[in-house]
Amino acid sequence: MAKASKLSVTLLTGRTIDQGAGKEHGKFSDEYMKNVAVCFVDSDDLKRLGIKYNANICVSTKHGSVVLRALKSPRGSHPGVVFIPYGPWANIIVSPETDDIGMPSYKGISASIEPAPGKQVLGLRELLIQQFRKE
């Protein structure tokens, strides 16, 4: 299997039990970040990119990019599909448009993933400053 530098994927986001439990500790807690600033990737896609479990990856869409920890998906085989739990990290890369329904689309988003050596996953405070600081 040839190693790729970047993969085109379909991004899905949604709720998880761990994401919900992390919120109980507060959105600025390490527990919340540990369970939300992650991207679940098919094991074959991890191999194709040469990404090790818990390594940092960059997930990019036409709306932005974010560095997350790569986790092997606990689900069956689903090459080309990644999952990010709902939260501020996912919000950075989904469309802000709500198409008059009041909720952005969190499913079926064209994205790419690539290794992000040397880049760190930002904590919530740093993420908010990066996204919303007015110069």
Characterization of the model:
This protein has 135 residues and is α/β, with parallel strands linked by helices. The protein is 26% helix and 29% strand. It has 5 helices and 6 strands; from the N terminus they run E-H-H-E-H-E-E-E-H-E-H. It has helices at residues 17-24, 30-36, 43-49, 88-91, 124-132, and strands at 7-14, 38-41, 56-61, 64-72, 81-85, 109-115. It has a 6-stranded mixed β-sheet with strand order 2-4-3-6-1-5. A hairpin with a 2-residue loop joins strand 3 and strand 4 (64-72). The longest helix has 9 residues, at 124-132. The model has no long low-confidence stretch (mean pLDDT 85).
Descriptive terms for the model:
135 residues, alpha/beta, 6-stranded mixed beta sheet
Summarize this structure briefly.
The protein has 135 residues and is of the alpha/beta class. The protein is 26% helix and 29% strand.
Shape assignment: globular
The ordered string of helix (H) and strand (E) elements is EHHEHEEEHEH
Helix content, binned percent: 25-40%
Largest sheet: 6 strands, mixed
Q: Would you identify the regions where 5 or more consecutive residues have pLDDT less than 50?
A: none
**How many strands?**
6
Question: Mean of the pLDDT scores?
Answer: 85
Q: What is the terminal separation in angstroms?
A: 46 Å
Spatial strand arrangement across the major sheet: 2-4-3-6-1-5
Q: Which percent range describes the beta-strand content?
A: 25-35%
Structural class: alpha/beta
Q: Compute the number of helices.
A: 5
Radius of gyration: 14 Å
